[in-house]
Amino acid sequence: MIEIRNLVKSFGPQKPVLRGVNLVIRTGESVVIIGRSGCGKSVMLKLITALMPPDSGQVLIDGEDLVTLQEQDVYRVRQKFGVLFQSAALFDSMTVYENIALGLWEHTTKSEEEISRIVAEKLALVDLPGTENLKPAELSGGMKKRVGLARAIAMSPEYVLYDEPTTGLDPINADVINNLIIRLNERLKVTTIVVTHDMTSAYKIADRIVMLHRGVIIFDGTPDQVRNTTDEVVRQFIEGRAEGPIKQTAVVAANPDPGIIRHPVPKRVKLRSKVMPE
Ligand SMILES: Nc1ncnc2c1ncn2[C@@H]1O[C@H](COP(=O)(O)OP(=O)(O)OP(=O)(O)O)[C@@H](O)[C@H]1O
Ligand SMILES: [Mg+2]
After folding, report:
1. Which terminus of the chain has fewer Cβ atoms in its 10 Å neighbourhood, N or C?
2. Which CATH superfamily is domain 2-274 in?
3. pTM of the predicted model, to two decimals?
């Protein structure tokens, strides 16, 4: 279970992003976080996975507060998460196999045979069997997302977090991703957190939809409760109307960094990938 308590994060005094977020995500649930561009959805995912520290508040993962844990414990807790970043964030110079095997090389002592079996299994789960030797440049946007997803689940996480998994995909590919998210949630029994502004996707995936607005959660309910809400702010968002209580002036500037986390390819991985089986 994830418990977020009074989470506050700002980027300088002029830029409050989260102003006291409270949210409980129960084990096995599928929770979708909606909200306008720049409202802090990606920041929230980064705080949940301890990629960024909050100014104040707590993030309890199965009772352990990420904010106060020692570094090695944060590292251990982080292994519970698999993340599909807003851009699939694959390493272009590496094959599909290498992209998925990366975490297993880095964080486990599994043999190459075992890793190769795991990669094949995860690729089958995202309906991309046999694509190990392709490079990201050879993949369509939807396929990249699926490889990103195979990588996110490579270490058998308990929590899978998705940042805008369907953005930029055509409606059919978007639905393929929606079905995969549901399948993984059910088959792997993971807890799912999805950030999106795609309401078709939100309605389909969610057990619960929460809306982040002006730094706080202003709505928390089932898809049916969202559809039938009389809350004018939520209605304006789900109906995609320019007119309503959400004014342009209240909107935080569009996010210049779409949540891509760039890290250099670790040296050991480069070396080890050279001795990979064909
Ligand atoms: N590292 C950072 N330094 C400074 N400001 C940041 C940083 N990361 C995010 N922000 C700001 O925090 C706000 C929220 O960003 P965030 O990426 O969480 O938005 P979002 O809700 O995910 O938007 P989108 O739907 O466009 O992805 C934005 O105004 C963004 O510019
Ligand atoms: Mg974002």
Report:
1. C
2. P-loop containing nucleotide triphosphate hydrolases (3.40.50.300)
3. 0.86
